[in-house]
Write a structure and sequence with these properties.
The complex is a heterodimer. Chain A has no helices and eleven strands. By secondary structure, chain A is mainly β. In chain A, the strands form two sheets. In chain A, strands 2, 4, 5, 6, 9, 10 and 11 form a seven-stranded mixed sheet that branches. Chain A has a four-stranded antiparallel sheet with strand order 1-3-8-7, with no helix packed on it. Classes of the chains: A mainly beta, B mainly beta.
């Protein structure tokens, strides 16, 4: 089945540690996105990539990093520089930037 | 910068009643507009989208939305709500020139039996 897979579903880390969230899609989509969701704030864009080997910062990129070495993969690293990393993270992809986006099931990150 | 406003944080309706969720955007040109729905702890599912053409668009699960350029609005409607419609609803817009998909803060819908 085609779709977007985020792993793991739940992730716990100690404060000060970097952590990488996985996002894989087999939809042959060019564009991929990472969003952070906090209660009452909707989805805020962290990074997006319109094509492989290229990505742009979103509205809240500080403390995060990404790579897009393969078309199907767009991993997000939450670094120790992110002041408040506990949140629900959603990955999405679209055929091309600006098209309807398809979402993964999310990863809930808790930093203790 | 382009923005999306959903004025209602929470809405409660009775099952069988009609529903309208509001969405306003700020952008000069005609944007691409979307409505998504999210069940607790899950990803988002597309309900409908507007790119151009007929300003009344039909979506899945009996939802529809109307694009009104004069009001910069894209309100979501359903004539008769079912208990299974209880969820959080997000309006989104593509920011032209940057191709960023920007979301509103969401409206949480509760349905009373």
């Amino acid at each position: 089945d085609g779709g977007i897979t985020q792993s793991p579903k739940y992730l716990f880390r100690k404060e000060g540690q970097n952590v990488t969230l996985s996002c894989e899609q087999n939809l042959n989509h060019d564009a991929m996105y990472w969003y952070r969701q906090d209660p009452g704030q909707g989805l805020r864009l962290i990074y997006y990539s319109q094509i492989v080997n290229d990505f742009q910062k979103g509205d809240i990129a500080e403390g995060y990093s990404v790579s897009r070495e393969k078309k199907e993969s767009f991993p997000l690293t939450v670094t120790s520089a992110q002041k408040n990393p506990t949140a629900f993270y959603l990955c999405a992809s679209s055929m091309k930037a600006g098209d309807e986006a398809f979402f993964g099931q999310g990863t809930r990150l808790t930093v203790v | 910068a382009q923005s999306v406003t959903q004025p209602d944080i929470h809405i409660t309706v009775s099952e069988g009643a009609s529903l309208e969720l509001r969405c306003n955007y700020s952008y000069g040109a005609t944007p691409y507009l979307f409505w998504y729905v999210q069940s607790p702890g899950q990803g988002l599912q597309l309900l409908l989208k507007y790119f151009s053409g007929d300003t009344l668009v039909q979506g899945i699960k009996g939802f529809e939305a109307e694009f009104k350029r004069s009001q910069s609005s894209f309100n979501l409607r359903k004539p008769s709500v079912h208990w299974s419609d209880a969820a959080e609803y997000f309006c989104a817009v593509v920011q032209g020139g940057y191709n960023k998909l920007i979301f509103g803060a969401g409206t949480r819908l509760a349905v009373h039996p």
